[in-house]
Specification:
The protein is of the alpha/beta class. About 35% of the residues lie in helices and about 15% in strands.
Protein backbone atom coordinates (compact mmCIF):
# COMPACT_ATOMS: atom_id res chain seq x y z
CA UNK A 1 0.00 0.00 0.00
CA UNK A 2 1.25 3.50 -0.71
CA UNK A 3 2.03 5.76 2.21
CA UNK A 4 -1.13 7.84 2.03
CA UNK A 5 -3.34 4.74 2.13
CA UNK A 6 -1.77 3.27 5.26
CA UNK A 7 -1.42 -0.44 5.96
CA UNK A 8 -2.19 -3.07 8.54
CA UNK A 9 0.67 -4.59 10.52
CA UNK A 10 0.28 -7.93 12.28
CA UNK A 11 2.01 -8.65 15.57
CA UNK A 12 2.08 -12.37 16.28
CA UNK A 13 2.50 -13.84 19.73
CA UNK A 14 5.77 -15.66 20.25
CA UNK A 15 4.87 -19.00 21.86
CA UNK A 16 6.24 -19.19 25.39
CA UNK A 17 8.50 -21.88 26.88
CA UNK A 18 5.66 -23.34 29.00
CA UNK A 19 3.30 -24.10 26.09
CA UNK A 20 1.21 -27.00 27.40
CA UNK A 21 -2.14 -28.73 27.06
CA UNK A 22 -3.98 -28.37 30.35
CA UNK A 23 -7.50 -27.99 28.89
CA UNK A 24 -8.01 -24.70 30.70
CA UNK A 25 -10.46 -22.97 28.38
CA UNK A 26 -13.99 -24.24 29.00
CA UNK A 27 -16.03 -23.44 25.91
CA UNK A 28 -13.04 -23.92 23.61
CA UNK A 29 -13.60 -27.41 22.22
CA UNK A 30 -10.07 -27.93 20.91
CA UNK A 31 -8.51 -26.87 24.19
CA UNK A 32 -10.55 -29.20 26.37
CA UNK A 33 -10.41 -32.17 24.00
CA UNK A 34 -6.58 -32.24 24.07
CA UNK A 35 -6.28 -31.94 27.84
CA UNK A 36 -3.21 -33.64 29.32
CA UNK A 37 -1.58 -34.41 25.95
CA UNK A 38 2.16 -33.76 25.88
CA UNK A 39 3.13 -30.56 24.06
CA UNK A 40 6.22 -29.52 22.12
CA UNK A 41 7.02 -25.88 23.03
CA UNK A 42 10.02 -25.75 20.68
CA UNK A 43 7.97 -26.89 17.68
CA UNK A 44 5.09 -24.58 18.61
CA UNK A 45 7.39 -21.56 18.68
CA UNK A 46 9.02 -22.55 15.40
CA UNK A 47 5.63 -23.01 13.70
CA UNK A 48 4.59 -19.52 14.78
CA UNK A 49 7.86 -17.97 13.66
CA UNK A 50 7.59 -19.66 10.28
CA UNK A 51 4.18 -18.08 9.72
CA UNK A 52 5.52 -14.65 10.68
CA UNK A 53 8.53 -14.95 8.39
CA UNK A 54 6.49 -16.22 5.43
CA UNK A 55 4.08 -13.29 5.66
CA UNK A 56 6.99 -10.88 6.01
CA UNK A 57 8.56 -12.36 2.89
CA UNK A 58 5.27 -11.83 1.04
CA UNK A 59 5.57 -8.11 1.78
CA UNK A 60 3.31 -7.73 4.81
CA UNK A 61 4.30 -5.70 7.87
CA UNK A 62 4.96 -8.27 10.58
CA UNK A 63 6.02 -7.89 14.19
CA UNK A 64 6.53 -10.05 17.28
CA UNK A 65 4.81 -9.79 20.67
CA UNK A 66 6.75 -11.34 23.56
CA UNK A 67 5.33 -14.07 25.83
CA UNK A 68 4.94 -13.72 29.60
CA UNK A 69 6.78 -15.06 32.60
CA UNK A 70 5.51 -18.48 33.53
CA UNK A 71 4.94 -20.25 35.86
CA UNK A 72 3.28 -17.27 37.52
CA UNK A 73 4.78 -17.54 41.00
CA UNK A 74 3.24 -14.21 42.01
CA UNK A 75 -0.29 -15.52 41.45
CA UNK A 76 0.53 -18.61 43.53
CA UNK A 77 1.79 -16.41 46.36
CA UNK A 78 -1.46 -14.44 46.22
CA UNK A 79 -3.37 -17.60 47.10
CA UNK A 80 -1.19 -18.52 50.08
CA UNK A 81 1.88 -20.42 48.89
CA UNK A 82 5.08 -19.35 50.62
CA UNK A 83 8.79 -20.06 50.61
CA UNK A 84 11.32 -19.73 47.83
CA UNK A 85 10.09 -19.69 44.26
CA UNK A 86 11.15 -23.32 43.90
CA UNK A 87 9.27 -24.26 47.07
CA UNK A 88 6.15 -22.42 45.91
CA UNK A 89 6.10 -24.36 42.63
CA UNK A 90 6.83 -27.70 44.31
CA UNK A 91 4.04 -27.19 46.87
CA UNK A 92 1.55 -26.07 44.22
CA UNK A 93 2.43 -29.04 42.02
CA UNK A 94 1.74 -31.41 44.86
CA UNK A 95 -1.33 -29.73 46.40
CA UNK A 96 -3.11 -27.96 43.51
CA UNK A 97 -1.75 -29.23 40.18
CA UNK A 98 -4.69 -27.81 38.23
CA UNK A 99 -3.98 -24.31 39.59
CA UNK A 100 -0.28 -24.70 38.84
CA UNK A 101 -1.22 -25.62 35.27
CA UNK A 102 -3.31 -22.45 35.04
CA UNK A 103 -0.39 -20.41 36.35
CA UNK A 104 1.87 -22.04 33.75
CA UNK A 105 -0.29 -21.31 30.72
CA UNK A 106 1.37 -19.89 27.61
CA UNK A 107 -1.94 -18.44 26.44
CA UNK A 108 -0.47 -15.02 25.70
CA UNK A 109 0.66 -16.57 22.39
CA UNK A 110 -2.87 -15.72 21.21
CA UNK A 111 -2.39 -12.00 20.85
CA UNK A 112 -5.84 -11.46 19.36
CA UNK A 113 -6.78 -11.38 23.05
CA UNK A 114 -3.97 -9.06 24.08
CA UNK A 115 -5.91 -5.83 23.63
CA UNK A 116 -8.29 -3.84 21.47
CA UNK A 117 -6.72 -1.38 19.02
CA UNK A 118 -8.35 1.65 17.41
CA UNK A 119 -6.28 3.29 14.64
CA UNK A 120 -5.69 7.03 14.47
CA UNK A 121 -8.27 7.89 11.74
CA UNK A 122 -11.05 6.74 14.09
CA UNK A 123 -10.02 8.35 17.37
CA UNK A 124 -10.82 11.82 18.65
CA UNK A 125 -7.18 12.72 19.35
CA UNK A 126 -5.75 11.22 16.15
CA UNK A 127 -3.58 8.64 17.96
CA UNK A 128 -3.60 4.83 17.89
CA UNK A 129 -5.30 3.63 21.10
CA UNK A 130 -4.62 0.38 22.98
CA UNK A 131 -6.62 -1.16 25.85
CA UNK A 132 -5.30 -4.47 27.24
CA UNK A 133 -8.04 -7.06 27.68
CA UNK A 134 -8.87 -8.02 31.26
CA UNK A 135 -9.77 -11.60 30.18
CA UNK A 136 -11.49 -12.07 33.50
CA UNK A 137 -13.62 -15.04 32.39
CA UNK A 138 -10.63 -17.39 32.73
CA UNK A 139 -8.29 -17.31 35.72
CA UNK A 140 -5.26 -18.37 33.69
CA UNK A 141 -5.72 -15.38 31.38
CA UNK A 142 -6.97 -12.82 33.90
CA UNK A 143 -3.43 -12.28 35.25
CA UNK A 144 -2.00 -11.26 31.86
CA UNK A 145 -3.01 -7.65 31.37
CA UNK A 146 -0.49 -5.81 33.62
CA UNK A 147 2.47 -7.35 31.78
CA UNK A 148 0.68 -7.12 28.42
CA UNK A 149 0.28 -3.39 29.02
CA UNK A 150 3.98 -2.96 29.77
CA UNK A 151 5.00 -4.95 26.68
CA UNK A 152 2.68 -2.92 24.45
CA UNK A 153 4.07 0.32 25.86
CA UNK A 154 7.62 -0.93 25.18
CA UNK A 155 6.62 -1.63 21.57
CA UNK A 156 4.50 1.46 20.91
CA UNK A 157 6.38 4.04 22.99
CA UNK A 158 5.89 7.38 21.29
CA UNK A 159 3.11 9.29 23.04
CA UNK A 160 2.71 11.55 20.03
CA UNK A 161 1.34 8.59 18.09
CA UNK A 162 0.15 6.02 20.66
CA UNK A 163 -2.20 6.14 23.66
CA UNK A 164 -2.34 3.35 26.25
CA UNK A 165 -5.24 2.70 28.63
CA UNK A 166 -5.38 0.37 31.62
CA UNK A 167 -7.58 -2.71 31.39
CA UNK A 168 -11.26 -2.40 32.22
CA UNK A 169 -12.43 -3.32 35.75
CA UNK A 170 -11.56 -6.98 36.32
CA UNK A 171 -15.10 -8.08 36.91
CA UNK A 172 -17.54 -10.20 34.88
CA UNK A 173 -19.79 -7.24 34.03
CA UNK A 174 -16.93 -5.77 31.99
CA UNK A 175 -15.50 -9.01 30.64
CA UNK A 176 -13.23 -8.04 27.76
CA UNK A 177 -11.54 -10.50 25.38
CA UNK A 178 -9.75 -7.98 23.18
CA UNK A 179 -9.49 -7.96 19.41
CA UNK A 180 -10.89 -11.48 19.10
CA UNK A 181 -14.29 -9.76 19.29
CA UNK A 182 -13.42 -6.62 17.37
CA UNK A 183 -12.67 -5.75 13.77
CA UNK A 184 -12.66 -2.63 11.63
CA UNK A 185 -14.01 -1.86 8.19
CA UNK A 186 -12.66 0.88 5.96
CA UNK A 187 -12.06 1.90 2.36
CA UNK A 188 -8.33 2.33 3.05
CA UNK A 189 -6.49 1.71 6.31
CA UNK A 190 -5.57 5.38 6.75
CA UNK A 191 -9.15 6.56 6.08
CA UNK A 192 -11.89 6.79 8.73
CA UNK A 193 -13.53 3.43 9.33
CA UNK A 194 -16.31 1.64 11.18
CA UNK A 195 -15.33 -0.32 14.29
CA UNK A 196 -17.28 -3.50 14.84
CA UNK A 197 -17.65 -4.84 18.39
CA UNK A 198 -19.19 -8.28 18.93
CA UNK A 199 -20.39 -9.31 22.38
CA UNK A 200 -21.73 -12.52 23.85
CA UNK A 201 -24.10 -11.10 26.46
CA UNK A 202 -25.17 -7.92 28.21
CA UNK A 203 -24.40 -7.75 31.92
CA UNK A 204 -26.91 -5.04 32.84
CA UNK A 205 -29.73 -5.73 30.36
CA UNK A 206 -31.73 -8.96 30.65
CA UNK A 207 -33.38 -8.49 27.24
CA UNK A 208 -30.40 -10.04 25.47
CA UNK A 209 -30.39 -13.85 25.16
CA UNK A 210 -27.57 -15.87 26.70
CA UNK A 211 -25.96 -19.20 25.77
CA UNK A 212 -27.03 -22.19 27.88
CA UNK A 213 -23.90 -24.32 28.02
CA UNK A 214 -20.78 -22.22 27.54
CA UNK A 215 -19.90 -18.76 28.89
CA UNK A 216 -20.38 -15.54 26.94
CA UNK A 217 -16.98 -13.99 27.56
CA UNK A 218 -17.37 -10.52 26.03
CA UNK A 219 -20.00 -8.15 27.39
CA UNK A 220 -21.76 -5.33 25.60
CA UNK A 221 -20.76 -3.01 28.42
CA UNK A 222 -17.06 -3.77 27.94
CA UNK A 223 -17.30 -3.04 24.22
CA UNK A 224 -19.08 0.24 24.87
CA UNK A 225 -16.49 1.23 27.48
CA UNK A 226 -13.61 0.69 25.05
CA UNK A 227 -15.36 2.75 22.37
CA UNK A 228 -15.63 5.60 24.89
CA UNK A 229 -12.03 5.28 26.07
CA UNK A 230 -10.74 5.33 22.50
CA UNK A 231 -12.75 8.42 21.62
CA UNK A 232 -14.72 6.78 18.82
CA UNK A 233 -17.53 8.55 17.00
CA UNK A 234 -20.75 6.66 17.88
CA UNK A 235 -21.82 6.99 14.23
CA UNK A 236 -18.76 4.94 13.25
CA UNK A 237 -19.38 2.06 15.66
CA UNK A 238 -21.58 -1.03 15.29
CA UNK A 239 -22.35 -3.49 18.10
CA UNK A 240 -23.57 -7.00 17.38
CA UNK A 241 -24.39 -9.96 19.57
CA UNK A 242 -23.00 -13.41 18.85
CA UNK A 243 -25.61 -16.06 18.19
CA UNK A 244 -25.90 -17.84 21.58
CA UNK A 245 -26.32 -21.20 19.85
CA UNK A 246 -22.98 -20.80 18.08
CA UNK A 247 -21.31 -20.07 21.43
CA UNK A 248 -22.77 -23.33 22.71
CA UNK A 249 -21.33 -25.06 19.63
CA UNK A 250 -17.81 -23.97 20.61
CA UNK A 251 -17.60 -20.48 19.10
CA UNK A 252 -16.07 -18.93 22.20
CA UNK A 253 -14.96 -15.75 20.37
CA UNK A 254 -16.30 -13.98 17.30
CA UNK A 255 -13.06 -14.70 15.43
CA UNK A 256 -14.04 -18.38 15.33
CA UNK A 257 -17.09 -17.57 13.19
CA UNK A 258 -16.14 -14.43 11.21
CA UNK A 259 -13.16 -12.40 10.02
CA UNK A 260 -13.00 -8.96 8.41
CA UNK A 261 -10.50 -6.90 6.45
CA UNK A 262 -10.96 -3.48 4.88
CA UNK A 263 -14.48 -3.55 3.41
CA UNK A 264 -14.98 -7.35 3.50
CA UNK A 265 -16.65 -9.48 6.19
CA UNK A 266 -16.20 -13.24 5.69
CA UNK A 267 -18.61 -14.96 8.05
CA UNK A 268 -20.99 -17.82 8.69
CA UNK A 269 -24.73 -17.37 8.30
CA UNK A 270 -25.16 -18.14 12.03
CA UNK A 271 -22.69 -15.58 13.34
CA UNK A 272 -24.92 -12.89 14.87
CA UNK A 273 -28.31 -12.27 16.41
CA UNK A 274 -30.52 -10.47 13.84
CA UNK A 275 -27.77 -10.89 11.29
CA UNK A 276 -29.56 -9.08 8.46
CA UNK A 277 -29.95 -6.00 10.64
CA UNK A 278 -26.27 -6.09 11.61
CA UNK A 279 -25.13 -6.35 7.99
CA UNK A 280 -27.35 -3.47 6.89
CA UNK A 281 -26.00 -1.28 9.67
CA UNK A 282 -22.41 -2.06 8.67
CA UNK A 283 -23.25 -1.25 5.07
CA UNK A 284 -24.89 2.07 5.97
CA UNK A 285 -22.20 3.24 8.36
CA UNK A 286 -19.32 2.30 6.10
CA UNK A 287 -20.99 4.09 3.18
CA UNK A 288 -21.20 7.23 5.33
CA UNK A 289 -17.38 7.32 5.55
CA UNK A 290 -16.79 6.51 1.90
CA UNK A 291 -16.63 2.72 1.85
CA UNK A 292 -18.61 -0.04 0.16
CA UNK A 293 -19.30 -2.93 2.54
CA UNK A 294 -19.14 -6.47 1.16
CA UNK A 295 -20.44 -9.51 3.03
CA UNK A 296 -19.31 -13.02 2.10
CA UNK A 297 -21.76 -15.21 3.99
CA UNK A 298 -21.07 -18.95 4.17
CA UNK A 299 -24.33 -20.93 4.31
CA UNK A 300 -24.74 -23.67 6.88
CA UNK A 301 -25.54 -26.07 4.04
CA UNK A 302 -22.01 -25.52 2.66
CA UNK A 303 -20.08 -25.49 5.96
CA UNK A 304 -21.79 -26.24 9.26
CA UNK A 305 -20.93 -24.43 12.48
CA UNK A 306 -19.36 -27.64 13.78
CA UNK A 307 -17.20 -27.91 10.66
CA UNK A 308 -16.18 -24.28 11.06
CA UNK A 309 -15.15 -24.94 14.68
CA UNK A 310 -13.30 -28.14 13.76
CA UNK A 311 -11.35 -26.55 10.90
CA UNK A 312 -11.11 -22.96 12.19
CA UNK A 313 -12.12 -21.74 8.74
CA UNK A 314 -13.02 -18.30 10.11
CA UNK A 315 -10.10 -18.09 12.53
CA UNK A 316 -8.14 -17.07 9.47
CA UNK A 317 -6.33 -13.94 8.36
CA UNK A 318 -7.52 -11.81 5.48
CA UNK A 319 -4.57 -9.83 4.09
CA UNK A 320 -4.69 -7.21 1.35
CA UNK A 321 -2.33 -7.65 -1.59
CA UNK A 322 -0.98 -4.62 -3.48
CA UNK A 323 -3.59 -5.20 -6.21
CA UNK A 324 -6.40 -4.78 -3.65
CA UNK A 325 -7.47 -8.43 -3.64
CA UNK A 326 -6.91 -10.59 -0.58
CA UNK A 327 -5.08 -13.65 0.67
CA UNK A 328 -6.80 -15.87 3.22
CA UNK A 329 -4.41 -17.57 5.65
CA UNK A 330 -5.85 -20.80 7.07
CA UNK A 331 -4.57 -23.70 9.20
CA UNK A 332 -3.83 -27.13 7.75
CA UNK A 333 -7.05 -28.36 9.38
CA UNK A 334 -9.00 -26.54 6.64
CA UNK A 335 -7.27 -28.55 3.93
CA UNK A 336 -8.10 -31.88 5.60
CA UNK A 337 -11.76 -31.01 6.22
CA UNK A 338 -13.29 -31.90 2.81
CA UNK A 339 -16.30 -29.58 2.70
CA UNK A 340 -14.26 -26.66 4.03
CA UNK A 341 -11.53 -27.19 1.45
CA UNK A 342 -14.11 -27.51 -1.33
CA UNK A 343 -15.69 -24.25 -0.19
CA UNK A 344 -12.35 -22.41 -0.15
CA UNK A 345 -11.46 -23.63 -3.64
CA UNK A 346 -14.83 -22.48 -4.91
CA UNK A 347 -14.44 -19.13 -3.17
CA UNK A 348 -11.16 -18.42 -4.96
CA UNK A 349 -12.53 -19.65 -8.28
CA UNK A 350 -15.40 -17.14 -8.06
CA UNK A 351 -12.99 -14.28 -8.80
CA UNK A 352 -14.23 -12.26 -5.83
CA UNK A 353 -12.17 -10.22 -3.36
CA UNK A 354 -10.40 -13.32 -1.96
CA UNK A 355 -7.85 -14.36 -4.58
CA UNK A 356 -5.72 -17.04 -2.93
CA UNK A 357 -5.43 -19.42 0.01
CA UNK A 358 -2.28 -19.89 2.09
CA UNK A 359 -2.14 -22.93 4.37
CA UNK A 360 0.04 -23.15 7.49
CA UNK A 361 0.83 -26.02 9.84
CA UNK A 362 -0.05 -24.64 13.28
CA UNK A 363 -0.98 -27.90 14.94
CA UNK A 364 0.66 -27.11 18.28
CA UNK A 365 -1.46 -23.96 18.58
CA UNK A 366 -4.56 -25.52 17.03
CA UNK A 367 -4.61 -28.37 19.55
CA UNK A 368 -4.91 -25.73 22.26
CA UNK A 369 -7.70 -23.93 20.41
CA UNK A 370 -5.92 -21.12 18.55
CA UNK A 371 -5.54 -20.66 14.80
CA UNK A 372 -3.94 -18.03 12.55
CA UNK A 373 -6.24 -15.22 13.68
CA UNK A 374 -5.75 -16.01 17.37
CA UNK A 375 -1.99 -15.69 16.96
CA UNK A 376 -1.99 -12.11 15.68
CA UNK A 377 -2.88 -8.60 16.78
CA UNK A 378 -3.76 -6.22 13.93
CA UNK A 379 -2.63 -2.59 14.07
CA UNK A 380 -3.55 -0.27 11.21
CA UNK A 381 -0.93 2.46 10.88
CA UNK A 382 0.58 5.15 8.71
CA UNK A 383 4.24 5.25 7.72
CA UNK A 384 4.91 7.85 10.43
CA UNK A 385 3.34 5.63 13.07
CA UNK A 386 5.28 2.57 11.93
CA UNK A 387 8.47 4.62 12.13
CA UNK A 388 7.62 5.27 15.80
CA UNK A 389 7.27 1.55 16.62
CA UNK A 390 10.18 -0.10 18.46
CA UNK A 391 12.07 -1.41 15.40
CA UNK A 392 13.53 -4.38 17.28
CA UNK A 393 10.12 -6.12 17.33
CA UNK A 394 9.65 -6.02 13.55
CA UNK A 395 10.33 -9.24 11.65
CA UNK A 396 13.25 -9.47 9.26
CA UNK A 397 15.81 -12.10 8.24
CA UNK A 398 18.10 -11.33 11.15
CA UNK A 399 15.37 -11.38 13.79
CA UNK A 400 13.96 -14.63 12.38
CA UNK A 401 17.35 -16.34 12.64
CA UNK A 402 18.01 -14.88 16.09
CA UNK A 403 14.65 -15.98 17.51
CA UNK A 404 14.95 -19.49 16.09
CA UNK A 405 18.38 -19.83 17.70
CA UNK A 406 16.94 -18.44 20.94
CA UNK A 407 14.12 -21.01 20.86
CA UNK A 408 16.53 -23.87 20.16
CA UNK A 409 18.69 -22.77 23.06
CA UNK A 410 15.98 -22.34 25.69
CA UNK A 411 12.89 -24.40 24.84
CA UNK A 412 12.04 -27.99 25.65
CA UNK A 413 10.73 -30.28 22.93
CA UNK A 414 8.34 -32.10 25.26
CA UNK A 415 6.28 -30.80 28.16
CA UNK A 416 3.72 -32.82 30.13
CA UNK A 417 1.47 -31.83 33.03
CA UNK A 418 3.90 -33.44 35.48
CA UNK A 419 6.76 -31.31 34.17
CA UNK A 420 5.02 -28.11 35.29
CA UNK A 421 5.97 -28.90 38.89
CA UNK A 422 9.67 -28.89 38.01
CA UNK A 423 11.16 -25.74 39.63
CA UNK A 424 13.91 -25.63 37.00
CA UNK A 425 11.27 -24.78 34.39
CA UNK A 426 10.83 -21.36 36.03
CA UNK A 427 14.56 -20.68 35.87
CA UNK A 428 14.63 -21.76 32.22
CA UNK A 429 11.77 -19.41 31.42
CA UNK A 430 13.28 -16.44 33.24
CA UNK A 431 16.68 -16.93 31.62
CA UNK A 432 15.04 -17.09 28.20
CA UNK A 433 12.86 -14.03 28.75
CA UNK A 434 15.69 -11.96 30.16
CA UNK A 435 17.59 -12.61 26.94
CA UNK A 436 14.48 -11.96 24.84
CA UNK A 437 13.93 -8.50 26.32
CA UNK A 438 17.42 -7.62 25.11
CA UNK A 439 16.78 -9.04 21.62
CA UNK A 440 13.51 -7.10 21.32
CA UNK A 441 14.81 -4.06 23.24
CA UNK A 442 11.84 -4.04 25.61
CA UNK A 443 13.61 -2.99 28.78
CA UNK A 444 12.38 -4.45 32.07
CA UNK A 445 8.79 -5.59 31.58
CA UNK A 446 8.60 -8.85 33.58
CA UNK A 447 7.96 -9.06 37.34
CA UNK A 448 11.24 -10.90 37.99
CA UNK A 449 13.10 -8.03 36.31
CA UNK A 450 11.27 -5.42 38.38
CA UNK A 451 11.54 -7.06 41.81
Amino acid sequence: MSANLGFEANFDGLVGPTHNYAGLSYGNVASTSNEKAASNPKLAARQGLEKMKTLHDLGFKQGVLAPQERPNVYALRQIGFTGSDAEVIAKAGKEVPAILAACSSASTMWTANACTVSPSPDTADGRVHFTPANLNNKFHRSTEHPVTGRILQAMFRDERHFAHHPALPAQMHFGDEGAANHTRFCHEYAAPGVEFFVFGAAAFDSRYPKPHDFPARQTLEASQAIARLHGLNPEQVVYAQQDPDTIDAGVFHNDVISVGNRNVLFHHEKSFVEQDVVLRQLETRLAAVGGRFLSIEVPDTAVSVLEAVKSYLFNSQLLSRPDGRMIIVVPEECRVTPRVWDYLNGLVANNGPIAEVRVFDLKQSMQNGGGPACLRLRVAMTDAELAAVNPAVMMNDTLFATLNSWVDKHYRDRLSAADLGDPSLLNECRTALDELTQILQLGSVYPFQLS
